[in-house]
Amino acid sequence: MTRPDLPLLRGGHGRPLGPSPFASAAPSIVVALVSMLAAGVWVIAGAALPGGRVLAVHLLTLGALTSLIVTFSEHFTRTLTRAPGDRHVAWPTVTTLSILLLLVGLATRFLPVLAFGATATLLVVAAALSRLRRLRRRAIGARFLWVVRSYEHAHGLFLLAGVLGTVLGLGLVTGPWFASVRLAHLHANILGWGGLTLLATLVFFGPTMVRTRIEPGADRLAARLLPVTASALVAAVGLLAATGLDGPWGFITRITAAGALSVVATTATAVLLPVIRAVRGTAPSGPRPAVLGTCLWFTVVLWADVAVVTAGAWRLLDALGIAALLGVLGQAVLATLTYLAPMLLGRSTTARTVIREGLDRGATTRTLVANLGVFLATVGATRALPDLPLLGLGLSLAAAALVAGLVRTLLTLRPTG
User: Fold this and answer.
1) How does pLDDT run across 51-107, given as a tens digit for each residue?
2) How far is CA 285 from CA 106, 214, 329, 409, 414, in A?
3) What is the tens place of the pLDDT at every residue in 221-264?
4) N or C: which end of the chain has fewer CB within 10 A?
5) In 3-state terms, what secondary structure has residue 81?
6) What residue ranges do the domains of the chain occupy?
7) Cβ neighbours of residue 3 under 8 Å, at least 6 residues apart?
8) Is-above-0.85 flag for pTM?
């Protein structure tokens, strides 16, 4: 039995459609995919390439994550506030160039380029924050304005993370203060910039990706709790930066920071539970297992972080970082791209159906393999001396699942006959 010709590449099949509502996000998605591929190359190469694995992490957090967050935060804000138009076409280019300069500065350790790239990136995000705030203030009676406020809080945390990261990159702090400022930078970046944005988006967009409705009351709960989450996270970042203090003050600030992070974990878990219940009850689909995996890993990472900070077990930060970057943020990106692919690539109703059905096939298996890889890599990184074979196996499985998803997409789009 042969597969029919795909209407995406042949005209006259199904009702023709106009441009996708996400068409303006296409350049940022391409940048994110290239950055994720480059991050994989840098992880495999280790110290053999400039910047080593530090650059690999920033390729993921800046090249992929930041590009997508800046783009989709504004896209969803314009949708939720019913604001006409889109951001200027030059902004994706400006964003990409500023991030590229920053990455080049990190790779070469050439401080003028690093400082200029960091400043440019901070200005781009500050400008994005200004646009979000302006759009929210112009909106009247919109139901999901709390989402936009959460995006604003996340942008503010990125600016804080950027300042801390610049201080680290320029070598302005040393000794125990370097470790404490780095810890604060990681939390502001991963849990603030990435985590808070993801948390707000999952509430209203997570059910949409799996073709169901938001659970009644979930939005009102999130509207009450997410401002608390953001405030507790800001407090935790400040306290973590102060853990470099000598004597008992360092211990006191660390325990207080753990208390603030427990507030973050409690409120975030309460926000995620309605999403998990809504997604779990849906029919199998391509994004469904990845959305569920994102929510579950998110909960685990938040509470594990509380335990790590409470105990001061800093050697476990690498394992926690793998779980956060791959299990939470990376998997969320995969779920989003799986959902968007039919709308970005399909040019007719039938085309989108064919692409969606193709991506649905094998999605659960691919996601299970990816999550097994994340689990093995996390376990391998928890050892006092990292278990390199186990770590490598886990990263290989996660990468293989991602590549299989991309191949599945390409095969879905390939015409036959």
Assistant:
1) 787 888 889 889 889 999 999 999 999 988 888 777 777 888 899 999 999 999 988
2) 40, 17, 20, 14, 21
3) 999 999 999 999 999 999 999 998 888 998 999 999 999 999 99
4) N
5) coil
6) 22-142
7) 416
8) yes
